[in-house]
Amino acid sequence: MKNTLFIFILVIWALQSNAQSQLPLGDPFIMYHQGTYYAYGTQSPDGIVVYVSDDLKKWRIPAKAQNGLALHKSDVYAEQRFWAPEVYFVNNRFFMYFSADEHICVATSDSPLGPFKQTVKKPMIEDEKCIDNSLFIDDGKAYLSFVRFTDGNAIWIAGLEDDLTTLKRETITPCLHVSQLWENEMARVNEGSFIVKHKDIYYMSYSANHFESPKYGVGFATAKNIMGPWEKYEQNPILQKPDGLKGVGHSAMFRDKDGQLRIVFHSHHDDNKIHPRLMHVGRVYFENVDGKEVMKIGDEILTPTLEKK
Question: Quick one: pLDDT at residue 309?
Answer without folding.
Answer: 66
